[in-house]
Known about the structure:
This protein is mostly helical. It contains one helix and no strands. The chain is rod-shaped and about 170 Å long.
Amino acid sequence: MDVEKAIQALIEGDVKAQKRADRADELAAERHKRAMERADKFDKQLKATADLVRAGLKLVIQDRKLAKEEWKKQAERNKEIDFKLNALIDSQNRSDERMRKFDEKWDRWLDELRKNRGNGHS
């Protein structure tokens, strides 16, 4: 009988161990399932982030192209302004030179008038 009890105890221990193993397997499967769900969620977030980065890069590239075109247009406008400004500077320099010459003539004429203050009778 002791042998039967020992066998019975071994069988019961084996059944308990099998139940614990089954529970551990179930817990492991549940943990694995949750881990896979988290990984799927992370993959979706990563894909969404990658899509946002791609869209952002397209916007940056487009913005740089527009800025480059605008810089070219501005450079052309600057050339026109520089040309006009240089023409204005040249014109002002010529005007200043004419005014200087006129002032010299005026001063000479006034000097002549001052020298000849007489009434024409000596």
